[in-house]
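Q: I'm writing a short explainer about Transcriptional regulator for a general audience and would like to include a description of its predicted shape. Could you first generate the structure from this sequence?
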Amino acid sequence: MSQDGDRASASRGQLTRDSILDAAEILFGQRGYEGTSTRDLAARAKVRLSLLHYHFGTKDKVLAATFDRKFDGLRSLIQSSFDTAAAGGELTLEECVRAFVMPFLEVSADKGHELHNFVVMTSHLMSSYRVPEVKPSLIRLSAISELFTTRVRAACPGAGESELLAGTYLIEAALIFMVQDPGFLDDISAHHHSADKLDQIAGATLRFFSTGLRSLIDPTSPN
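A: Of course. Here's the predicted structure. Afterward I'll give you a sentence or two in plain language.
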């Protein structure tokens, strides 16, 4: 085969892989890992099932490949948010919360963002954290959590570790549910707010998270 033919074949192969991974982000985000079959993924990607098995083999390897493709982009987004916020000096606790939370709210609200489906997928899959095929991929997200806890430790050097970890966990747990929310916010708020427009309640979200975290870390501080 000529070099041009090799390049064309490689390009077709990459397009096929990308189609399967795009399908995986959407279906894992909608149905979860256990609710999605390789046949579902192939149908969504509009490729033959044999091609999916050729490129990835098994469903857990498809999931791992979705993380390989987008994880560094998400980590870079959060790191960049912290770096930008810290350009003027040390961050306050409130600035740490904003720098961590806002990228997730903005990506969730922007369905055209390259990380939108990936973030929704990872949030949905957290309910399957203990599934053996899922946990190895999800545990990689701890590196992003550590970006947050490291900044909070620096902002509040006297904070107890137990309280700090409890507070950051509660923020992340709430954020995970918010991102995967299919419409509960719309109903419970009588459509004053929408799960599709989380960035529009950013002010309330940041105040709530920051005040709660500070009350855990420093109960004597005025709220």
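A: For your explainer, you could say: The radius of gyration is 20 Å.
Q: Perfect, that's easy to follow.
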